[in-house]
Amino acid sequence: MISVRNRIHIRLFVVVALVCLFIVVLWYYPVPVLTSQLHGGALMKVVVTVYYEALCPDSKYFLTKQLLPTFKIAKSIMEVKLAPYGKAKTKEHNDPLLRLEVATCMIMDNHSPQEAMNKCTSQINFDDSVIQNCFESYRGVDLLKVIGESTNSLRPPITFIPTITIDGSQGRQESILKDLLSEVCKAAGDSREVKDICKI
């Protein structure tokens, strides 16, 4: 039986490690900021933001059964932002698929966060010492604080984890949780690319 104190430490490690992973990957592979509107004839992507907890079974289900499969199908029309903070409280690569696969890998087997991070980063041949250094630094705590502020500023406030926004809107949570691809397709518009992906 794991003590409450150890569970808190495990959760904190998982959250900070995931935050560090996303920041490190973004540092090496920057992703342009995108929206779902057409701008100058170019398709702008639907922004899906997932506010989740690394040890939450509902979050695990959503990442593995909805988010990753949807992204693999519709990556050209959507951008994914992950906020691994959930209902926590705090005190004062151009490859989003890589980030999503590592997060999904880690959430699938996170009882030993350090081992999960090592296993998942080795599967993609990524140096996990960069993530570990971020985790051990003040930068990791600062990043967690920023994600926490973003999570806590959601209106309406989070009542269920995971909470997903599509282009900043929390509307239709039940539908988003059950059929993310359909909801992304509705938000993406009706370009030829969207129709091909969504089979409209």
Automatic annotation (TrEMBL):
Coiled coil: none annotated. It comes from the Eukaryota. InterPro entries: Interferon-induced_GILT. GO terms for molecular function: oxidoreductase activity, acting on a sulfur group of donors, disulfide as acceptor. Its EC number is 1.-.-.-, 1.8.4.-. Keywords: Glycoprotein, Membrane, Oxidoreductase, Transmembrane, Transmembrane helix. It is an enzyme of class 1 (oxidoreductase). The chain crosses the membrane at residues 12-29. Belongs to the GILT family. This is Uncharacterized protein, isoform E. It comes from Drosophila melanogaster. The lineage of its organism: Eukaryota, Metazoa, Ecdysozoa, Arthropoda, Hexapoda. The gene is Dmel\CG41378.
